Amino acid sequence: MTLRRDRLWRNRLTNALQTLLIMGGLALSLSVPGYLLAGPGGVLISLTAVAFTSLLSSWMPVRVILTDAGAGMLRRHQAPELYEVLAHLYARADLPIAPQLFFVPSPDLNAFAVGTWRDGGIAVTEGLLHTLSMRELAGVLAHETSHLRHGDTRVMSMAAAMTRLTLWLTVVVQVALLASLPLVAAGELAFPWGPLLLVAVAPTLSTLLSLALSRNREYKADLEAVALTGDPEGLASALTELERYHSRWLSTIFGRQQQPTGLDWLRTHPPTAERIQRLFSIDGQRHGLDPHPGLQRHHGQRPRVHQRPGALGGHHWFLRRRR
To answer: How far apart are CA 259 and CA 270, in angstroms?
Structure first.
């Protein structure tokens, strides 16, 4: 049984509206210092700068990070089972390109989308491949495929650009306010309490909105991953493994003391328990979905990399994929 289409589209519409509202809030937060500095022209210049920087950041920085991490491109003959699963997910997601996998030689448990669906791919760490089963890894790959399919990397890079520019502009406004203090002391100018309050709130509001947007895109990617695999339990099991790993990592910082709670609004990812609960409530029952046959036959396997790829030179990441 597949994910009910009406429930899927209802969730897509809800997430799209939430994304629009959050992006609108980010644009408004950016407009405040831009307007205080240069009026309507400042707002226009700020938004234009965001569009320009987001286009650049969605093209290069992730590739630079992968190069610094010593990542290499996995060829099909080096990981045929992984490519078979990923090719099936790409076909289910209607992505008209060949999949690309990148291998990061790190013990951390992580996977992330690189670039856009036109020229990007998915990076997985060595620790993730050694820890998850093929069924769990299929859920993670489906999650990252959804990020590529819906352009989440570009959306988040635009949100990050808005937040950074908001911070920079508010600093400029604060310097301008400090420069006006002699006039205020001389009684020639009233102290601008309103602008001061606005520039004090804008960076914090922009940061919180960016975090909320990230959580929103993660929820959506979970839903779309289940639509691709038909297997909420596979992804839920992977999330449980990742949470166990990160809990051990946090225990090395806080020891046996109570770890911080109640700060979910400061996280880039939603709480794991809530994500799992949403996965199992998609069709109102825990076992309401069956894994897609094209993926199910891989569930008994372990992820294997037959040959580790070498790290690629920095020049590779600045070249576009040949179609």
So the answer is: 17
